[in-house]
Amino acid sequence: MSLRNKVVFITDADTATGKTIVKRLADEGAHFVLNSPSGGNALEAEQSYCQSVGSGVMLVNIDLCRSAEVGAILEEAAERIGAVDVLIHNNNLVKPTSVETCDESLFLQVMNYNAKSAFICTQAVGKQMAARRSGKVIYISSIHAEKPTGSSFVYSVSRSSLKMLAREAALELGRYHVNVNTIEVGPVDGDDETFRSDFSTLYHDYQYKVPGTVLGTQDDIADCVLYLSTDASRYVNGTDIRLDGGFVLHYMDHKMNKNPHN
């Protein structure tokens, strides 16, 4: 087991991505600190699975933008199940808005949830990891760190902020053998609704804008997270892994591969 007795902190375990990662990493022997906005109600199946494979779980429900709360939980976790070895920041809030119409409160809501929380968690966990001279920080982000959505400019801004946070943290924490990397996820099922736009056609027939015409899945994300969590990725630091099947390379709709078997 590649993560035997490693402690993994997931910032939003209630999401489909979070749940898939829990099961994938539990199979590799990990224990967990799971931040659950539902207070664990959405994670009954995952808790049972972890118990069945011998993975310990510490459930929390904290404000990740409050450094005092994050610090207190990390201290408690160190006493109960061990210091955090892997931080997986997977907060993903999308709110439809434009530069013209977005008000300040909405801008701050998305930025705080997607970006400030990453800074607070990285700062707190990074101090512990630096002291132990070991650790992994993984941000699950989006291709919209670079490519506009056409539907939520503040989402793109929050993702581009995360991109540079990762690079700065990789430079600083890397001196202590802590790896910091970002997974920039491309389209998955349902993103045509998530990023529905009145003027952008980016997500029209989006499956066919992936050269292989197959959308990514939560399992694809979990597999990439597993790699970055293990010693196999020891020389990967400050990197953006584009996990999109080639989606951002698309350039002409009339060239879409709608008959991949012909």
Automatic annotation (TrEMBL):
InterPro entries reported for this sequence: NAD(P)-bd_dom_sf, SDR_fam
Molecular function GO terms recorded: oxidoreductase activity
Pfam family, one: adh_short_C2
Annotated Gene3D superfamilies: NAD(P)-binding Rossmann-like Domain (3.40.50.720)
Domain of life: Bacteria
Keywords on record: Oxidoreductase
UniProt cross-references to SUPFAM superfamilies, sorted A to Z: NAD(P)-binding Rossmann-fold domains (SSF51735)
Entry's family note: Belongs to the short-chain dehydrogenases/reductases (SDR) family.
Identification of the protein by name: SDR family oxidoreductase
Natural source organism: Paenibacillus piri
Lineage: Bacteria, Bacillati, Bacillota, Bacilli, Bacillales
